[in-house]
Predict the structure.
Amino acid sequence: MTYSSPSRVLTCIQCGKCTGSCPEAGRTAFNIRMIVRKRQFEREIDEALPWHCTSCGACTLRCPRDVKPSEVIIDVRSAFVEEGRIPVSIQKALENTFVQKNPWGRSRARRGAWVEKADVAVPHISETSSKRLLFTCCIQAYDPRCMVIPVNVATLLHRGGVEFGVLGEEEACCGNEIRRIGEAGLFEELQEENIAAFKEYGVREIIALSPHCMNVLKKEYGELGIKVSHYTEVLADLIAAGKLRIEGRYEKRVIYHDPCFLGKQNGVFDQPRSILRSLDGLELLEFTRSRETSLCCEGGGGRMFFEAEGQAEVRNAEVRVLEAMEKGAEVIATSCPFCVMTLEDPAKEKGQTVKELSEILMEVT
Amino acid sequence: MNLLVLTKRVPATQEEELRIVGDGRAVDLSKVPFKVNDWDNYSVEEAVRTVEKTGGAVTAISVGDAESDEVLRRAIAMGAKDGFLIETEEVIHDPQARAALIYTFLKKEALPYDAIFTGVQSEDDQFASVGGILAAKLGLPYASMVIGIDAFEAGHVVVRRELEGGMQERIKVALPAVLSLQSGINEPRYVSIMGVRKASKVERKVFKATEYQEHVKRMIDVVKWVYPVKKGGAVMLGGELDTVCKNLLGILKEKGVYQ
Amino acid sequence: MSYALVVAEVRRGLFEERNLDSLGLSHLLGMETTLLMPDGAYTVGERVASTIIRVRTEETIFLNPLAMTQIVRKVIEAKGLPGAILFTSSSSGIELASYLAGALDLPLITDVSGFDAERGVFLKSYYSDKIFGEFKPKEGAFVLTVRSGSFKEHAVEQESAAAVEVLDGIIPPEGRSFVEYVEEEKGEIDITKADFLLSVGRGIGSKDEIPAYEELAGILRAVLSGSRPVIDKTWLPKPRQVGTSGKTVRPKVYLAMAISGAFQHIAGMKDSECIIAVNKDPEAPIFQYAHFGVICDANKLRDKMKDIVKKG
């Protein structure tokens, strides 16, 4: 049974707070208020339009009438998906996920290959007594740039004395982006497969490496009786309890970017910051738009796989990098692989550094 | 128009490291996921689009094991009226044998058709021959590498075939005929999982391959499977820039993209 | 000794170089070669085969499988069944070979890239060259299509000039007829349909470098494409983007110039038949996916290529 909340378009009063918070509004033709309006009157929506949405969730967070505009977008996309009228690149991502259980179409058999790069032993979940699962995430399993994250976190958890295991090739895509793309049937299949694996191995706790995975596992997989958290929550606790010792200094001005799925959608703002603050010499800077108002990097909602027509001249990711520079940051830190990917491109061009939190921690532990 | 479309379930080997087992006896496909043959996906889409314009129906036919039902359901989800499975557990490598099986089936079942669509080749064996052999056996005109159907009239079709380097030939083919379609002829619609589930409601008839062996002859044997001589890694072209460029041009010529 | 019938591939007055591979393999088969070609002003060495049969017919008839069956049947009537019939492994070659094999009920092996004379087995690619199958046809005549570049070094000159024969009386078949050649329209560029893509990355430096790449693409008859940063900077328009959020392409040749090979980009082109990577960074990830690599400044290579091609 998919998580679905009936979208209550008829309660919308057209106040415009959604569009006011939308990272795509004003820069593109995308207007979420207008889309909700059209749904109220069951009008046709341009098939190119819904794909601008990044699923940041700002609209749903701020809507005074609980219309859940993010879900409205998913509904609109679902209709196009069932008709087969979706952009080719999204199609490929879905077809790849169907065959190989990851949107990049990489070999499922290699999903657990990252453990070969880790310095510590990473057991299969069945070999652990804690039944604490580290959920890898597709992009971190396959993209060389992001593969360092699971490798780092495995090492850090080990140092912190936390036992955990992985599913390896038995892990399927969590389905967060798949559901947001509107492929409910495929999401159900992924969900079923993962839940079956969780049940088979008696998984009691899940530590997710990506806020996207954390989001869907925590809120959209139903009542599993499994505690789900993001790794930054676990590491923050370990550091506070003195179980993970910080040794070196990190003499840098670091600005932290709140990922939408970690921050505004799941309220995890303080733990990544407490991790950074525990580093001697680190000067923590804030974006003007931070925490709940963090500016979406435009990596989510299927945007990894699709460039909508009429894209704005300057990407949000670039806006973020420019602001970081303006504020004098030496490092842009974040705790989501999608944010890392989207921020790094403009950052590299401007000679800026983007670091995932685990990368910073590995330098000082 | 009544169109028959051949569709095949193939291993998705693009991303996999394949192992040969039994001292060259077989390739281990046990951990490889399966999917619809890319070229057949284009063919089904083209067939469905054609009948959307001309009226009529599409029947999908697959030769394979019971799991091949998957590709028939997919074809139905895309718009085919029904699907027939010629069931066999055996992997038939010889295109002559495959084509003869289909030929025997078509003759015995006396399926009516205006045209038979196949894909140019299947992703696994890449023989690219079943369409041509089948056409010859049926005594029908044939065209392969069809990249565009310009006109579909009562007695003939006008199609464009891919040659190389962006060049095509436009030909007129009398119907009924067999056409092997090239990838890129269209953009296949997305088939959602729910769509495939709905297609399960349409009956897919199963026929046993053992009952259609009359004309089937094995003409080639697989002696052994071997790994390619050159293993992975790019061939680095070194030396003077002049030489490198000349080598590159040679490669382009060999690949048939530059004359 | 049986003879090998090599069916020539010709294109608009050109005797294709790929025919040398068929001639090479027929030499390895130990059979006398009879070359079958249309009667026309083609540049063919007179010692290229033992016999050359010139067929008095339109060149386009050699693209017609129905006609080819008629022609080969006439040859068989006159000279008996050959030991082998060889075609090039190409758009026309495979079409002709499969139809002919079906008509004559002969064993067929396509895309042959190797031959072991001792064991009488042919090497055929499976799973996009990841595995090769050793195939053996049953006793008697067989049909092959030969992979380009595989045997041309074995094509030897005969000791004397070929005996030339003429074949006529070919009736154009009714079931299929040639209408015209069509050049791909240059209107809306669809990079997914191109055979040959010349793709540029951020490493080319600036938008000013693009016209020179356009020129090279034109000369090589390639279509210009680019990675995402190039499109983001509007050095090339959006339809030219290769990558996860752009287009997925599978051309015969993908020439990547100054592209590093980011994950997102690789996903959009890794299934290309032949990937040639040019990058001055030897550590560029793209080299892991390329079939051929050149470590050098892409702009310099571009200029050199243009020079060489222009000079002819």
